[in-house]
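Justification of computing resources. Each target in the renewal requires a structure prediction run like the one illustrated here; the chain below, 93 residues long, is used simply to show the kind of job we budget for.
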Amino acid sequence: MGIKISAPGLDQAVAGTELLRAQSNNQKDIDVCVEEIENNMYDLLDKYVDKNSDGVCVQASTLGSLEALLEFLKDMKIPVVNVAIGPVHKANV
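Resulting structure tokens:
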């Protein structure tokens, strides 16, 4: 399901990541949510990215499209050495 969220302070939000709710407004609960999201990102990198070999750099607009592309490249046995999320600019190529 797709939703659009508008709020202050979302400059560092990544499109396509999970939406978690802290149980309260205290920093400990917020840190638990941040850690869970970071762990999910590290799991994604561990599963698809091998920085010790030659391969391609992959960039997509959202986390979901990035993961789908990474799964396709894995099936095609194309190694990936770097990933990014966001619009592709001429400087990226």
